[in-house]
């Protein structure tokens, strides 16, 4: 049975989420602090399909835990925060979380997001997970991006943004399209999340030469990946 790791120091919350997860067919693993979370993750890493990770936990907070997990694993992580400040959401996504949800929340919504992320991953795994365009190489199995054979250090979401745009070159994506495709749920997020990730992705790509392709802004609509050689 697929396992879900639920990490929160509030036992009432872990109990409620565990009940919902078990009804959805998951076997649950509960952790009540950051160190316990990492210990149980390393013990069951091969079996855990997704992690629900509270930000404010004793011993190690959720951000520390997420960073450590991302050193060795791309398992999906949904961050749970008691506050809704943008900087916390952005930090969580930047260090590799797949999604975030703010307390108080509906347990049904949490499980809907879990299902959406796992559906998206299943579709991705069924597709070819690497491609090359000009001097750009993207491998979604390893989450690596090379330009001129030089590795570009991108976050998980930045790799997925580049993958989605470049695999569908010249197609215009609205911000809502990208939220749905990459964050895996239907417009629960803020479109500014897409803009901030595109801005950081472009800044990293500008450090290397890529004269034959670029990510273009389509004003009033969204973004698209253009390969200039196609226009000659």
UniProtKB/TrEMBL annotation:
Matching entries from SMART domains are given as: REC, Trans_reg_C
Sequence ranges assigned to domain Response regulatory in this UniProt record: 3-118
Q: Which CDD domains match?
A: trans_reg_C
Q: What is this protein called?
A: Response regulator transcription factor
Q: Name one Pfam family in it.
A: Response_reg
Residue positions, PTM 4-aspartylphosphate: 54
Key words of the record:
DNA-binding, Phosphoprotein, Transcription, Transcription regulation, Two-component regulatory system
Residues annotated as DNA-binding are: 128-227
GO terms classed as biological process: regulation of DNA-templated transcription
**Gene3D superfamilies, sorted:** 3.40.50.2300, 6.10.250.690, Winged helix-like DNA-binding domain superfamily/Winged helix DNA-binding domain
The UniProt record lists the OmpR/PhoB-type domain at 128-227
**Gene Ontology MF, one:** phosphorelay response regulator activity
TM helices/strands, residue ranges = none
Read off the PANTHER family from this record.
REGULATOR OF RPOS, TWO-COMPONENT RESPONSE REGULATOR ORR33
Q: Tell me a GO cellular component.
A: protein-DNA complex
